[in-house]
Amino acid sequence: GAGVSQSPSNKVTEKGKDVELRCDPISGHTALYWYRQSLGQGLEFLIYFQGNSAPDKSGLPSDRFSAERTGGSVSTLTIQRTQQEDSAVYLCASSFGTGRSYEQYFGPGTRLTVT
Amino acid sequence: SQQGEEDPQALSIQEGENATMNCSYKTSINNLQWYRQNSGRGLVHLILIRSNEREKHSGRLRVTLDTSKKSSSLLITASRAADTASYFCATVLTTDSWGKLQFGAGTQVVVTP
């Protein structure tokens, strides 16, 4: 079946603009995660969804970052007033059940460049 | 700071040789997972080993876990050029209810024909 998809694959934006990144998880996966990967910080957890709720938002770096998930499926990560340090690859992953003891399936990522 | 640290940072070997990389972590874990990443994009899950397991195999991959030393190793046997990638260990902490992964810095493996 289809894997995790993300769009856009690349996004270049000017500093101060808002961006939206989209993730379509594997059908039937209730757990959804956002991570980001940057040269300086490596791979970092951002937020976790179980269904439409987000019980763990501990990785969001500032209040400029928000995410939502609708219908227990598609998720959108929004970054407001982008800064150059937001430049990174944003990865989405989904997993079966609560996710704790299961492998995560990753999408190809969105490469965000803030100029 | 990252939970896991990997060693070595980079590894260059020839096809047919074995590649071994190590991962150390700091805090009690529920499980440890290894992922592969090609070309800096999506990660592919390789193996999940639970805290009560000591060794797992999958094809040419062998993973060991020593919870007393808080360390794990990934062995790739009879490597191929297609194994060229970055390899990451990731842990799920005992205290975590939701499975968020805490990644190491990764090992870059280059396999030359």
Task: Explain how this protein is built.
The complex is a heterodimer of chains A (115) and B (113). Chain A is an all-beta fold and 115 residues long. Chain A has no helices and eleven strands. In chain A, the strands form two sheets. In chain A, strands 2, 4, 5, 6, 9, 10 and 11 form a seven-stranded mixed beta sheet that branches. Chain A has a four-stranded antiparallel beta sheet with strand order 1-3-8-7, with no helix packed on it. Chain B is mostly beta strands. Chain B starts with a strand and ends with a strand.
Fill in the keyword field for this structure.
heterodimer; A: about 120 residues; mainly beta; 7-stranded mixed β-sheet; 4-stranded antiparallel β-sheet; B: about 110 residues; 6-stranded mixed β-sheet; 5-stranded antiparallel β-sheet; about 0% helix; globular
What is the terminal-to-terminal distance of chain B? 36 Å
Oligomer: heterodimer
Helix content of chain B: under 10%
Secondary-structure element series of chain B: EEEEEEEEEEE
Of all chain pairs, the largest interface belongs to:
A-B, 30 and 27 residues
Q: Helices and strands of chain B: which structural class?
A: mainly beta
How many strands, what sense, and barrel or not for the largest sheet of chain B? Answer: 6 strands, mixed
Indicate the low-confidence ranges of chain A by residue numbers.
none
Task: Give a quick summary of the entry.
Chain A is an all-beta fold and 115 residues long. Chain A has strands at residues 5-7, 10-13, 19-24, 31-38, 42-50, 53-56, 65-69, 75-79, 88-95, 105-106, 110-114.
Helix-strand layout with pairing:
The complex is a heterodimer of chains A (115) and B (113).
Chain A lengths: L4 E3 L2 E4 L5 E6 L6 E8 L3 E9 L2 E4 L8 E5 L5 E5 L8 E8 L9 E2 L3 E5 L1
Chain B lengths: L3 E4 L2 E5 L4 E7 L3 E9 L5 E8 L4 E4 L2 E6 L4 E6 L8 E9 L8 E2 L3 E6 L1
Parallel strand pairs in B: 2-11
Antiparallel strand pairs in B: 1-3, 3-8, 4-5, 4-9, 6-7, 7-8, 9-10, 9-11
